Amino acid sequence: MTQFVVRRLLAAIPTLAGVALLAFVLIHIAPGGPVAALVGDRATPVQIAQVTHSLGLDKPLYVQFFAWLSALAHGDLGFSYVRQAPVGRLIAERLPQTLLLMGVALLVSVAIAIPLGVLQASRRRTRFDRIASLAVFVAWSMPTFWFGTLLIALFAVTLGWFPVGGLQTIDTTAFDWPSRIAHLVLPATTLAIVQIAGWSRYVRGSMIEQLREDWARTAVAKGLAPGPVLFKHVLRNALIPFITLLGNSIPGLFGGAVITESIFAYPGMGQLFWQAALNRDYATLLGMTVITGVLVIAGNLLADILYGVVDPRVRYD
Amino acid sequence: MTDDAPKRHGPRLTAYARAGIGWIAVAIVACVLVPLAAHLSATNTDVANAYAAPSFAHWFGTDGLGRDELARLLVGGRITLSVGAIAAAVAMVIGTVYGALSGYYGGWPDAVMMRVVDVFLSVPTLFLLLFLAAMFHGSLVALMLVIGGTAWLGPARLVRGEVLSIKERLYVEAARSLGADDARIIFLHVVPNAAGTIITTTTFMVASAMLSETALSFLGIGVRAPTPSWGNLLSSAQSDLFAGAWWLIAPPGLAILATVCAFNFVGDWLREGRDIETPA
Amino acid sequence: MKRAIAALLACAMLTACGGARRAETRDPNLIVTAWIAGPDGLNPVTSISSASTMVERLIFSPLVDLGPDMLPRWSTSLARKVDITDNGRRYVIHLRHAKWSDGIPLDASDVVFTIRLMMNPDLIAGSASDFTLMTSLRALDAETVEIRLSKPSPPFLPNSLAHDTIPLPRHVLGKYAPGSKAEADFVNTDAAFSQNPVISGPFRIERSVSDAYMIVGRNPAYWGPPSIMPRFAFRVYPQQDSLYAAVDAGEVDVTDIPPNLWRVHDRLRGNHRFVNWPWNVTFYLLPNFHDPHIAFIKERAVRQAMEYALNRTFITTGIMSGQADILDGPIPSFSPYHDPKIRRYTYDPAKARALLEDAGWKLQGSFRAKNGVPLRITLTTGGATDAIASNIAELIQENFRAVGIDCILENEELQTFFQDVHDSHFQLALRGRIPGPYPDDYQSFASDQTHANGGNNYGFYSNPQIDAAIATARTAPNAADARRALDRYQELANEDLPAIFLYSNRLGAVVPADLQGLDLTPLAPAALPMGLQFWHRAKKAGARSAAQ
Q1: Which of A115, A228, C187, C505 is the 20 to 30 Å CA partner of C18?
Q2: In this complex, which of B2, B116, B268 lies closest to A125 when CB atoms are compared?
C-alpha cells in the first residue's frame, strides 16, 4: 500500500511541472496583454512601454518563467495589478466559496443519482424507467444559463422563495447558516441537475451490467431472493468504477462554474478566472492555474488511494 | 429482476432512439435546405417592424432589428450543428489517434503521453476553454478547433483503454507474426474493433460540443454577431424573458434542447446496444 | 424507502423556505445599489474599475468637485475657491480646513504631493491627466497652493484639477522621493492602502466582501455636513438579467437600467421611479486615414455620405431605447459648449447616394466602385460580449450596404479590440470615448498626436485648419475667446468629419419612488446617480399636510 502511494506521489511531480509550463505558455502566447487593461484607453505608447518595462514583460520568456517559478517556490503567487491585491489572497477568498457550492452540488447529485440509477436499473423497461430516462435526458441537454435563469424567474422573482444572488445576507459578516443554505439552493440545483443526469445514467448502466454477471444470475437461480443482500453486493461492484467518475469531477470542484456563479452573483473561482481572462491579468491566471493544478492532482491522488483501498485488484498493476 | 434475453441479433431501436434520429434528420434538412428554398433572409433588417410577435409574414416574429426570427433560427441551426459536428470530429480524430498510439505502443511512450493528458486534465476544462476562446479571434474555424481541442482528452483515454484490451487478443499477435507494420495493425485492425466505443463517444461529443458553443456564445466568446447561432440567439434573447418577447427565447432554447437531447438518445441507445452485443 | 426520501425532501424544503424568508431580511431604510462589477482597489491613482471610481468619490474629497452641469461646485470641493490671474497662467487654490480619517490635517502639502505623484512616469495609472503645461507647483502656506502654467489653458481647471485630482495623504504614501521609481513601485503595490485607505470624504467603508458587497457609513472626520442617510449598501451582480430580477424581487433598490431593459422598464414590480439623464460618453466611427485599401476615406464627400446614410434615429430611439442622443459634431448636445448652429446630418440615404454618385462612385452590382477600386470597408468593433454594440454594428452595416458601400463586420473581444485600435490595425472602428468636461480634442484629432508621439490620434487624421482651431481653443486666455474658438472648431469638425459621429449616451436608472436628492451628473463614473450624501426619502404626503 505504501509503495502504491509513494509511486503515485512521485508520478505527480512531473505532472505538476507540466501544469506550470502549460499555464505559462498558454498565457503568454495569447494576443493582447495586461498592460492595455491596466493603463486604460487614454494611455500613450510611452506610458505603455514604461508599464511593460515596470512589469518585466519585456524580458525574454524563459527569464520571466524562471523568475515566476522561483517566486512560486518561495510561496509567492504574485501580485495582481488589475485587482490591487496579492494573488494568494484573492484565491484564498474565493476557494472556500467555490468548494462550498460545488461540494453541496456534488453531494446532492450523488445523493440523488445513485438511488435514481439503482431504482431505474431494478425497474428496467417499466414506465418509471422510461419517464425517469426522459427527465434525465432533458436535464442533461439544457444549457446551464437557460436553466439558471428559469429558476430565478420562477423561484426567486415570481414565488420569492429564494434570493436571486449573493453569498448570504449582508446584515452580518458572520457565517449565517440558514441564509447560506437559502443562497445555495438555486445555484446548487442548477449545477446538480446536469450531474445527476450523467451519473444516474452511469449507475443505471453499471447496475444492469453487474446484474447480468454470471455470479449474480447464479445467485438468483440458486434461490437467493433478489433482496437487499444481493443488491448490496451488486451495488458495491457497480459503484467501484463510479469513484473514477467522481475523480473526473475533481477539477470542477476547484475550478467552479463560471456561468452559474455569474448568474447567481456567487463570487467563486470561476468568476475570478473569467474576469482575469478578460482583463489579461497574467498573475492571477497563472496563480489560479497552478493552485487548481495542485489541488486537482492531490484530489486525484486521494481518489486513486481510495480506489486502491476499495478494489484490491488495482493495487497490483 | 427482469429478463434481458441477450440473444438478439443487433440492437432494437427504442422509441427514444427513433425520436432522436428523426429529429436530427428534420433539423438537418430544415436548417440546410429550407432557407435556400424559401427566400428567407436572416440579415434583412426592417427597423419599423422590430420585436413583432409571430404572424403570417413572420412565423416566429422578428428580433430587435426587425429580422425574421425563423430565418435566423434556421441559419443559426446550420452554424450550431456544423460547429457541433466538426468540433466533435476534431476531438474524436485527435483523441482516437492519440489514444490508439498510446495504447498500442505501451511502455514509456504510453506513460509520457498519458502524463501529458494528465497535465491537461489537471487544469479545469473550463479554464482552458474560456482562455483559448477569449484569446483567439472569433472565426468559426477557430471556435471549432478550440472546442475540439479541449474535448479530445476523454476520448483519448477511452480509446486507449479499448486498445489495451483489444491488443491482447490473438489476432493481433497473428497479424504481427505475419509481418504487418505497426500503422496497418493499429488503423486497420485494432481501431475498427473499438468502433463501437468510438461511434458512441462521437455522438455524445456532438451533443456536448453544441452545449459548449451555447455556453461560449453566452459569455460572448463563441459565435459572434452578426452570424446567428442557437447559442447567441438564446443568450441575446435572455433579457426578453422579462420583456415578454417569448418568440425570441423559446425557439432557440427548445431547438438546442431537442437537438442535444436527440443526440444523447442516440448515443445512449448505441451504448446500450453495444452492451448487449459484447460478451460479458 | 420512498417515504423516507419524501420526508427528507420535505424537511429540506421547509428549512430552505424558512431560511429564504430570513435570508433577505434587511433594514428597509438601507438603500441597496447594484454594480455589475465591484471595486478593484481604492487608490484613485491606480484603480481602474468604474465601481472603484464611484467609491473613491464617496470616501475621498476631490480638490474641485464638478456639479451636474459639469462646472465647478465649490460647496462639495476641498478648494474654497480658485483665483485665476495673469491672463489665465496663474492659479491660486484656497483650501478649506479638513482632516484625514486618522486625525492628521489635510493641507496644501497633500495637494502638491498628489499632483507630483500623478506625474510619476512609472505609475501604472489609469488617468492621463495633462500637467505638461505646468511650470511651477508649490504650497504658499498650509491652505494655499499656487500653480503656474507656461500658457493659458482653459482645460486645466475642469479637466486636470477638477476631474482627475483627488488629494491623497502624504503622510501615508509619501515615503519615497517624489517622482522616483521607488515611489511608483510602492504605490503600485500598496495593497494595504488600496483595500483600506486613509480617507477624507463624507463616507467610510464599514465592511465589505470582495466582489460580493460593500457597506459605507458616515465618516465622522469629514469637513462638511454629514450625510443625510447614515449608511448605504452596494451589491455585485455580474449578470445583467439577474440584476434586473433582483430589482424585481426587491433585493436591490437602485441600479442602472441599460438600453435593452429600458424598453420594458415599466414592467418592474414595486414602488419605483425611473430617471434618465445625459452621460458624458460619445460614440463614433473612427476611420484610418493611413490605410491604403481605403484611400477613398480621405474624400470628404464619402465621409459625409456615410453620415447621411446612417439611421441614427433608430440607433438612439430603437436599439438604445431612448438612452442616447444623436451626436452632431464632436461636442455632445448637453455640454454647455455645444454649438446648436452646426449642420444636422439627418437620415437621408438618397442624399448619401447622390453624394457618392457625384464623387464618381458608381454602382456596379450591389456596391459602388471608382477606377477599379471597390467601395469596401471593414467595420471593427469591440462588442463581442455586448449585444447592443453588436446590434448597432449590424445596423450600420445594413445602412452602408443600402447606399452601395460594402461593409464587412469584425466583432472582437474588448481587449483585442483595444489592442487593434492602438496599433491602428483597423479600417473603421466603432469607438467610444469620454471627453473631458471642457472639450479638448487635441490628443484625439491633432495631426501630431499620433500614437507614436504619445497621442490618441489612432486614425492619423490631419487637417491644419482643425489643428489651428484646436490650438486656439486650448490656449484661449478668457471664457469669451474660448467659446468663439470652440464654435469654430465644431463647425470645422462637423464639416470635415475626422470621425463619423454617432451618438452620445444617456443613462437610465431605477430608484425607490420616494428617493430624492439625486445628483444626475453626466460625469457619473459608474452609470449611477451620485450625491449619496444628499439622498433622502421624501416625507409622506400625510405627514406634510399634518405639519401644515
Answers
A1: A115
A2: B2
pLDDT band at C127 (very low <50, low <70, confident <90, very high): low
Helix, coil or strand: residue C519: strand
Pick the closest to residue C130 from C111, C115, C140 (CA basis).
C115
Q: Output DSSP code: residue A37.
A: H
Phi, psi of B237, rounded to the nearest 5 degrees: -95, -5
SS3 C58: helix
Shortest alpha-carbon distance between residue A219 and chain C (Å): 24
Query: Can you tell me the distance from the alpha carbon of C62 to that of C166, in angstroms, rounded to the nearest whole number?
Result: 5
Percent of chain A with pLDDT over 70: 87
Residue C2 pLDDT level (bands cut at 50, 70, 90): low
Q: Which residue's entry shows cell 452570424?
A: B227
Tell me whether residue B20 is exposed, middle or buried, using C-beta atoms within 10 angstroms of its C-beta: 0 to 12, 13 to 18, 19 or more: buried
Q: Is C26–A170 a contact, with Cβ atoms under 8 angstroms apart?
A: yes
For residue range C243-278, list pLDDT tens digits in order.
888 988 888 999 998 887 787 777 777 788 999 999
How far apart CA A108 and CA A199 sit, in angstroms, is 12
Chain A residue with CA closest to B131: the answer is: A277
Q: Which residues contact C24 (CB under 8 A, 6 or more apart)?
A: A163, A169, C250, C251
In this predicted model, what pLDDT tens digit does every residue of C167-178 receive, in sequence order? 999 999 999 998
Of all residues in chain C, the percent with pLDDT exceeding 90 is: 64
Confidence of residue C218 (pLDDT cuts 50, 70, 90): very high
The predicted complex's ipTM stands at 0.84
Nine cell digits for residue B148: 475540439
Closest-approach residue (CA) in chain A for B221: A278
Q: What's the rounded Cα separation, in Å, for the pair C147 and C93? A: 8
Phi and psi, residue C219, nearest 5°: -95, 110
Q: Measured between alpha carbons, how far apart are the two ends of chain C, in Å?
A: 70
Please give the angle made by the CA atoms of C323, C325 and C326, to the nearest 5 degrees.
Answer: 140
Q: In what order do the strands lie in the sheet with C144-149?
A: C79-85, C90-95, C144-149, C134-141
**What is the C-alpha radius of gyration for chain C, rounded to an integer number of angstroms?**
26
Give the whole-angstrom CA distance, residue A61 versus residue C166: 38
Contacts of C15 in chain A (CB under 8 A): 178, 181
Residue C164 has pLDDT above 50, yes or no: yes
Asked if residues C281 and C503 have their Cβ atoms less than 8 Å apart, the reply is no
d(CA A275, CA C40): 11
- Dist CA B15 CA C448 (whole Å): 73
In the predicted structure, residue C495 carries a pLDDT above the cut 60: yes
Count of C-beta atoms within a 10 Å radius of residue B51: 19
pLDDT surpassing 70 at residue A230: no
DSSP element (H, E) containing C402: helix C387-402
B3 pLDDT band (50/70/90 cuts)? very low
Yes or no, beta carbons of C26 and A169 under 8 Å apart? yes
Encode B28-95 in three state secondary structure: HHHHHHHHHHHCCCCCCCCHHHCCCCCCCCCCCCECCCCCEHHHHHHHHHHHHHHHHHHHHHHHHHHH
Beta-bridged to residue C66, according to DSSP, are C72
- Give the residue-averaged pLDDT of A115-138: 84
**pLDDT tens-digit map of C300-334:** 999 999 999 999 999 999 888 889 999 999 999 99
User: Residue type at A94?
Assistant: R
